[in-house]
Amino acid sequence: MDLRQLRALIAVVDEGTFTDAAAVLGVSQAAVSRSIAALERVLGVRLLNRTTRHVALTETGRKVLAQARRVLDEVAHLEHIVAASRAEVRVGYAWAALGRHTRGLQKRWASAHPDVPLIFVHANEPTAGLRDGTADVAVLRTPLNDPRFREVEVGRERRVVAMATEHPLARRRTLRLTDLARYPIAIDERTGTTTPEMWPADARPRVIRRTGSVDEWLTTIAANQAVGVTPEATAQQNPRPGVAYRALRGAPPITVRLAWRADSPPTGLDELIAAVRRLYEKR
Question: Are residue 119 and residue 134 in the same domain, yes or no?
Fold first, then answer.
């Protein structure tokens, strides 16, 4: 048994299909299938019932899944302890880091801590790398509500609309949510900040295009297959040929948070929080 097999089991259950699990893990579907088969062979039991459209845990599979999550959490904690000794602070993000503030924070931190690099790392999952130890602290735009982590608000961001440059709405400088309802809306349910519930109940989008990453989201929009709503940080940090960003009026702002593991706060956490807050207050 190895950790790769446990990660494959968790990904298949969390994502619902072998195809989606493979995309999250960055491997082929065949590799995921081999990992699950190897784990079942090692344990001597069937963990998943498979059909052409559905994957479900067996009774034993449910028990193994719970233990697999605990094992990987403990491994991540060990990796985090070791990483903390490397004299660097890794800031995870799933979408757009801190937008226009990213470079400013890096410069300020480098000036104050020349021997402790502040490294931004991309992790396309809800904890932005905290869960598996990729990050010491994470930039979040949706709350975790998980007792393993602590989080604080550091700023607010306006929302903008993203659309193809040839889209009819691209001729306008500002838009409202109701202007978008007649068009397909690209939504990333995994790490995005947009949900259909943002629209009035009687004016919600009829077509939702679900995406799995910021790159897929932008590619869908650039192809004029959907429009999207996103934090202004996306426009600032992810310019894309063929994509236009426009101001969105009347939509609630997005709360930006920093989060970290409750049992191992990173080096310089208080100073990092204060520095990010100062940057957002200057707008």
Answer: yes
